[in-house]
Design a protein that fits this description.
The complex is a heterodimer of chains A (372) and B (48). Chain A is α/β, with parallel strands linked by helices and 372 residues long. Chain A is built from 12 helices and 16 strands. In chain A, strands 7, 8, 9, 10, 11, 12, 13, 14 and 16 form a 9-stranded mixed sheet that branches. Chain A has a 7-stranded parallel sheet with strand order 3-2-1-4-5-6-15, with helices on both faces. In chain A, β13 and β14 form a beta hairpin. In chain A, α7 runs parallel beside α9 and α7 crosses α12. At the A-B interface, α12 and β16 of A face β1 and α2 of B.
């Protein structure tokens, strides 16, 4: 089956569009991805959403959400330009769906993204992966040459942390003449799959960029008190298998220290070596992400602290949808990269504000957009 | 016993006066109890 992209021109944002999005994985975050797509302004809304999940009830729920949105749009618009079509793909072989989609948002369980990304790229489809597993992030970044060969973008780690945290780090880094250190901290989880990954991360070895080389540190070590915006407030955070340093180091290879930590209670740390003792929450929010960037500006050492406090499932979905729209708008070059590599973090952050993700800065310093 | 009571009262009075002196004449002010975070505006994000 030929790629739909061969016959279509990918439209720019703000103009009438007719693009298709495949959403793979309809758990808590994937369901929010569909909602965020439907909440997009009518002139940027996809003409068709392709849905894939191994559990039929989740697919049915997503179809119902689209049907409800279409009914609401139909009452507001006399024509059917605001209507969104839906197709479903085969859970174990969504390649057919990729052939007819312009961009695929991967919100499935960690461990499945690399294979799906290969299928999608070979189908001529841009890919936005929401994985937060460091090993999988490595695998996805290794697909750079494949993505370039097919002249498609593979956005790696387009969630809350990494993802939104990468945008915040890049925005803060753009205010500096040089970046010396970046510390990322996160609190809260999205759905059950995210909670399981959080549990695994705490017991796994993490990677910190220290003194221009990688240092491997035990998960659950290195307690650090991070102060998030309300309602999260202060939380003890610890090292773990977190992918943020991997993505940020590619953008800031000269930084002396890049580290990431995740909030945890004593019980979380004590039970991290055991299987999960109880079923994860359907949504582990509210949560927060905090990025502290230290560097030199105008000859002085400065620290910029940016953060968000939101439900990780909702904010991650908003980031992935904005990433997909930006890719379709030609704002991302071909190849595999994280959001820290994007030269327009302020534009994307501004769009996220419109979707209800408030961006906070600590202190009274005002920022100048260098990317406007 | 009376001497002990007088000493206790004197000690409490001295402590109270010292605390009042620090409270009324101290220069440290009150530590920040909340805040510090502020929401970024579109003007800061994209220069609009």
């Amino acid at each position: 089956m030929p790629s739909s992209l061969d016959a279509e021109v990918i439209p720019l944002r703000g103009e009438p569009v007719g693009y298709s999005v495949a959403v793979v994985g309809l758990g808590t975050t994937g369901a929010h991805v569909v909602k965020q797509l439907l909440a997009t302004e009518p002139d940027s809304r996809p003409a068709r959403i392709g849905l894939v999940d191994k559990r039929p009830e989740r697919t049915s729920a997503a179809i119902a959400a689209v049907r409800t949105a279409n009914t609401a749009a139909g009452s507001r618009h006399r024509d059917d330009t605001a209507q969104v079509a839906v197709t479903t793909g085969r859970p174990h072989d969504p390649a057919d769906l990729f052939h007819t989609s312009n961009v695929a948002i991967l919100a499935s369980d960690c461990g499945t993204h690399a294979a799906l990304a290969i299928d999608a790229l070979r189908s001529g489809c841009h890919v936005v992966s929401m994985s937060d597993n460091p090993d999988e992030i490595d695998d996805l970044l290794a697909l750079d040459s494949l993505a370039r060969h097919h002249e498609r973008s593979l956005v790696v780690g387009a969630g809350m942390v990494p993802g939104l945290s990468c945008l915040l780090a890049r925005f803060a880094g753009d205010q500096m003449d040089s970046v010396h250190a970046i510390n990322v901290a996160k609190a809260g989880t999205a759905g059950p799959a995210c909670a399981r990954q959080h549990h695994r991360a705490l017991k796994s070895t993490g990677r910190d960029w220290v003194g221009h080389r990688w240092e491997y540190r035990r998960g659950g070590s290195g307690r650090d008190l991070a102060w998030f915006p309300e309602p999260i407030g202060p939380r003890d955070c610890y090292r773990g298998a977190l992918p943020s340093p991997i993505l940020l180091q590619r953008q800031y290879p000269d930084a002396r220290r890049i580290s990431a930590r995740v909030s945890a209670t004593r019980r979380d740390r004590f039970t991290s070596r055991l299987p999960m003792l109880r079923k994860p929450h359907r949504d582990g929010g509210p949560g927060a992400a905090r990025v502290e960037v230290r560097g030199r500006r105008d000859g002085a050492i400065e620290t910029i602290v940016l953060a968000v406090a939101a439900f990780p499932s909702e904010s991650a979905a908003a980031v992935s949808v904005e990433a997909a729209l930006s890719v379709l708008a030609g704002m991302a070059p071909p190849g595999a990269q994280g959001l820290a590599a994007w030269s327009n973090p302020g534009v994307v952050l501004s769009e996220l504000r419109r979707r209800g993700v408030a961006i906070f800065a600590y202190g009274d310093d005002r920022f100048d957009s260098k990317t406007g | 016993m009376l001497m002990l009571a007088r000493r206790v009262v004197a000690a409490l009075g001295f402590a109270g006066m010292t605390a009042a002196l620090f409270r009324l004449r101290g220069q440290g002010g009150v530590a920040q109890q909340q805040g510090g975070w502020r929401e970024l505006t579109d003007a800061e994000l994209v220069g609009r």
